[in-house]
Design a protein that fits this description.
InterPro entries: KOW, Rib_uL2_dom2, Ribosomal_eL14, Ribosomal_eL14_dom, Translation_prot_SH3-like_sf. Pfam families: KOW (PF00467), Ribosomal_L14e (PF01929). Belongs to the eukaryotic ribosomal protein eL14 family. With 203 residues, the chain is of the alpha+beta class. It folds into three domains: 35 residues; 85 residues, SH3 type barrels, CATH 2.30.30.30; 34 residues. A five-stranded antiparallel sheet has the order 4-3-2-1-5. A hairpin with an 8-residue loop joins strand 1 and strand 2. The radius of gyration is 37 Å and the shape is elongated.
Length: 203
């Protein structure tokens, strides 16, 4: 249909009012359902995975291009410099500081957020520590560890089998109580046999 100038102007104004609201709801929905929560951004804390500073924590200060970022690690003795993204593992921690802030500002934000304490309490850091300890074991220590694991698995299996046997008897495992042979079953009385009438003897 052909619209007049007034109607066309009104439809455009309505579309300006309606579409941003819809887009805002959709963007909020997609943000909530987004599977990835760790992004390359200013303030993101990362672990160096390669190079002379391997295993140390740094914070992203600026994004140079698609493959390089400017990082700074004031509390981990990592000087400010550029690193490739494939040399970093992003963590869930992020500190807030202005864009392209100085090392002094990054250090203050790092200390206020207690990044070192949070990292030490995380499962990731505990796994790294245990991996380093395992790498330092001698042959005798590895043998002792293997024997201890075997003994632990044996005790765990025996305990599991005992619990499963008890649960199956109590009816928890399969939902039906297992009856013992000749134990709890009610005794049924046998019916007396009816005597057949004897036929008269022939003379």
């Amino acid at each position: 249909p052909i619209l007049t100038c007034h109607q066309e102007r009104r439809s455009l104004s309505l579309s300006k009012l309606v579409f941003p609201v819809k887009f805002r709801h959709l963007s909020f929905y997609f943000w909530q359902s987004m599977p990835f929560k760790r992004f390359v951004e200013t303030g993101r804390v990362a672990v160096v995975s390669d190079g002379p500073y391997k295993g140390k924590l740094v914070s992203i200060v600026d994004v140079i291009d698609q493959t390089r970022v400017l990082v700074d690690g004031p509390n981990s003795n990592v000087p400010r410099g550029q690193l490739r993204l494939n040399e970093l593992h992003l963590t869930k921690f992020r500190i807030k500081f202005p864009f392209a802030a100085s090392t002094r500002v990054v250090r203050k934000a790092w200390t206020d957020a207690n990044i070192d304490e949070k990292w030490a309490q995380s499962v990731w850091a505990q796994k790294v520590v245990s991996k380093e300890k395992r790498a330092e074991l001698s042959d005798l220590d590895r043998f002792k560890l293997r024997r201890a694991r075997s003994r632990r698995n044996h005790i765990r299996t025996a305990t599991f089998l005992t619990l499963r046997k008890t649960a199956s008897r109590n009816g928890v495992l399969y939902g039906k109580k297992k009856m013992a042979k000749g134990g709890d079953k009610p005794k049924t009385t046998k019916k007396a046999k009816k005597e057949k009438p004897q036929a008269p003897k022939k003379k």
